[in-house]
Design goal:
With 219 residues, the protein is of the alpha/beta class. It contains eight helices and twelve strands. The protein folds into two domains: 119 residues, Rossmann fold; 91 residues, Arc Repressor Mutant, subunit A, CATH 1.10.10.10. Helices cover 41% and strands 23% of the residues.
């Protein structure tokens, strides 16, 4: 059973989401205060769901910063009542894997959790893929630049796999959205451009070509 930590200061919402996630088969631990969540870091957690704006002095950005000091790979979903593009981009830059805006339905959140869990924890028979100076360990979901491990988020890694499994194939933005975020994703395809930009920055030797008015291709 996968363990999810849900950090949300609205107690009624936290309890409601907890019920839905437990019905979906997850073990759920809720925190209403940011400090309590930070104190729990280091225990086994398979996914974190963090509200950005909390009632105490610690916010979701502080928590993900503390998480990433201990675990670079555990997936994180941000939730927030603020629907600002800058908030979403900042959340992704800090290493989150998804962002959902309040008010959201509990069913939608469960769908997003299911998609991320399936992507991150599926078995891949210890496959190693080489591309230029990079080696990609599919099972461990780790990328090495020569002997140095790169810090990729879940979404960045999934985009990389999509490209390397389909060299020279052009993908429309909506196809990338469906493959990486899942068919249940609600949002614009602008997130695709930001994700490609971040992957290019971390792996500059990737030959990702922008196809004007269409999408992207890895050569």
């Amino acid at each position: 059973m996968y363990t999810i930590c849900f950090v949300e200061d609205e107690v009624n919402l936290a309890n409601l989401v907890k019920v839905y996630l437990e019905k979906a088969g997850y073990d759920v631990i809720t925190f209403n205060k940011g400090q309590d969540a930070i104190n729990y870091i280091g225990n086994k957690v398979d996914l974190w769901i963090l509200d950005i704006m909390l009632g105490d002095d610690i916010n979701g950005y502080d928590i993900i910063g503390a998480i990433r000091k201990v675990d670079l790979n555990v997936p994180v979903i941000f939730t927030s009542a603020r629907d600002q593009e800058l908030d979403k981009i900042l959340g992704l830059e800090l290493g989150s894997d998804d962002y959902i805006t309040k008010p959201y339905s509990s069913k939608e959140l469960v769908l997003r959790v299911n998609n991320i869990i399936k992507r991150v924890y599926k078995s891949n028979d210890n496959e190693i893929i080489s591309y230029d100076i990079y080696k990609i360990d599919v099972e461990k979901r780790v990328v090495y630049k020569e002997d140095k491990e790169l810090n990729l988020t879940t979404l960045e890694f999934d985009l990389l796999l999509l490209f390397v499994y389909n060299l020279n194939k052009g993908f429309r933005r909506d196809e990338i959205l469906s493959a990486v975020w899942g068919t249940d994703y609600f949002g614009t395809d602008r997130v695709v451009d930001d994700l490609v930009r971040r992957l290019r920055k971390k792996m500059p030797r990737l030959k990702i070509t922008s196809i004007y008015g269409f999408g992207y291709r890895l050569s």
